[in-house]
Design a protein that fits this description.
Shape: elongated
Largest sheet: 9 strands, antiparallel
Helix content: 10-25%
Number of helices: 3
Strand order of the largest sheet: 1-6-10-9-8-7-2-3-4
Order of helices and strands: HEEEEEHEEEEEHEEE
Distance between the termini: 114 Å
Structural class: alpha+beta
């Protein structure tokens, strides 16, 4: 009679173990969902922060500029990448819900790269911290500010989150098609031909 009880207890423990493993796997898998769902036109300001460095991009009625920098013109392709790649990032697998493990996934305040998007009314539309994956360079980790969960992303976009002004902007290109001659515009002169024979 005693052997029956031992086997019963072993079966119950095994069943509980199988249930726990299956439940834990189910919690780690998440349906892919985009991190940002608002329209592009709703965004008035974007700020990228990494450690002590940060940069702020401001939408002035459809024309983007770098806050505090009048010498560079924003590269349109960088803004397009921000909206078409970074803000369309999908979060996929749940990695942890434990804030003590944020450093493992490089999404702590001191290690991660923070992206904040603000609307025209001054309200935050979204704020996330991105971390690099040490094992899979094609993906990143992400957590939403104010939430403990860390997810794996479907692609790597962290290189698009740079704090250097020269990454986002470039010096204005001079207009070489014409030369200003006072009040009139004339075609630029032909280059001087030198015969070296």
């Amino acid at each position: 009679m005693g052997n029956w009880r031992v086997w019963f207890v072993i079966l119950v423990v095994l069943a509980a173990g199988v249930w726990y493993v299956q439940h834990a796997k189910g919690r780690r898998v998440s349906a892919s969902e985009p991190i940002f769902t608002a329209e592009r036109d709703a965004v008035q300001k974007v700020q990228v922060t990494k450690r002590a460095d940060d940069i702020e991009l401001v939408n002035d009625g459809g024309k983007w500029r770098i806050a505090g920098n009048d010498s560079l013109v924003v590269r349109e392709n960088r803004i397009n990448d921000l909206f078409d790649r970074v803000l369309k990032t999908m979060r996929t697998t749940l990695m942890t819900e434990n804030p003590d493990r944020w450093k493992t996934y490089m999404v702590s305040d001191s290690l991660g790269t923070r992206l904040e998007v603000t609307g025209w009314d001054g309200k935050t539309l979204g704020s996330w911290v991105f971390g690099s994956s040490q094992s899979d360079w094609s993906k990143n980790y992400i957590r939403t500010e104010g939430r403990p969960e860390v997810y794996l992303t479907n692609s790597s976009v962290i290189y698009n989150l740079n704090t250097l002004p020269t990454f986002w902007g470039e010096a204005p290109k001079p207009d070489t098609a014409s030369v200003d001659l006072g009040d009139t515009m004339a075609p630029a002169p032909d280059p001087v031909q030198v015969d070296l024979k």
